[in-house]
UniProtKB/TrEMBL annotation:
Source organism superkingdom: Bacteria
Transmembrane segments: 21-38, 50-72, 93-115, 127-148, 155-174, 203-224
Name of the protein this chain belongs to: ABC transporter permease
Alphabetical UniProt keywords: Membrane, Transmembrane, Transmembrane helix
């Protein structure tokens, strides 16, 4: 790993990100949602599920969607292969691009939580859960971005990720019958586990989120091997 090459890639991708209106719009959506939801209940405290819904939108759109679009752009311009053939390794490329996403995710998260209230996340267990959940969405986005050929195609992949993993807290607001199969399945999804980590005095939800991260890392590795083989 070469830090100079990583920061050169970071600087280049940060400039590209700021020029792209599609990617620039991504951090704005959850911030608008945070502002809108914070006004719904008036002076009443926001439900935890709504706060985590915005957190899910940040992770799915900014973290997963952002890196997916950046990788798809390289595929579309056919520059990813050139980068891997340059002195920079694929690891340098991925770390450099991920740093852009880390910066944007943190900035969006801080602004959104400042609007909604940071109380629900000021807990060591929840903060650790947020960090490993970020890795889940990042790995998922990199994996998909490696085989998506055009930026336009990313929308088709981003929507299922947002509805399945980002909007999961909405399932608890749908009033489904307690013990239903749908609810049982979604209870193991990472966002629901993060909410459980807030409510429950146990580290089991964080362990389950860590398993999701391992699965996403394996998915990313398989996509990487397949992409290199196709090249």
């Amino acid at each position: 790993m070469n830090t100079q090459r990583i920061f050169a890639i970071f600087e280049k991708d940060m400039k590209d990100f700021m020029k792209n209106t599609m990617t620039l719009f991504m951090p704005i959506v959850p911030i608008i949602l945070a502002f809108f939801y914070s006004r719904i209940g008036g002076d009443e405290e926001m439900p935890i599920e709504m706060i985590y819904l915005v957190v899910g939108v940040i992770f799915s759109s900014v973290s997963a969607g952002g890196i997916m679009i950046m990788m798809a752009e390289e595929n579309e311009k056919q520059t990813l292969r050139g980068l891997t053939l340059s002195p920079a390794t694929i690891f340098d490329v991925l770390v450099g691009k991920s740093l852009v996403i880390v910066l944007l995710t943190i900035a969006t998260m801080i602004i959104s939580l400042a609007i909604m209230g940071m109380g629900p996340i000021l807990d060591v267990k929840v903060i650790i859960g947020l960090i490993i959940l970020f890795l889940f969405f990042l790995f998922l986005g990199i994996g998909i971005g490696l085989f998506v050929k055009t930026v336009g195609m990313t929308t088709a992949y981003l929507m299922p990720i947002m509805f399945l993993f980002g909007f999961t807290p909405m399932v608890q607001l749908l009033g489904l019958e307690e013990g239903s199969l749908v609810l049982k399945i979604f209870n193991y999804f990472p966002m629901i586990q993060l909410i459980d980590a807030y409510y429950l005095d146990t580290w089991t939800p964080i362990f389950i989120v860590a398993i999701w991260v391992i699965v996403a890392a394996i998915f990313m590795y398989v996509c990487f091997k397949r992409t290199m083989k196709d090249e």
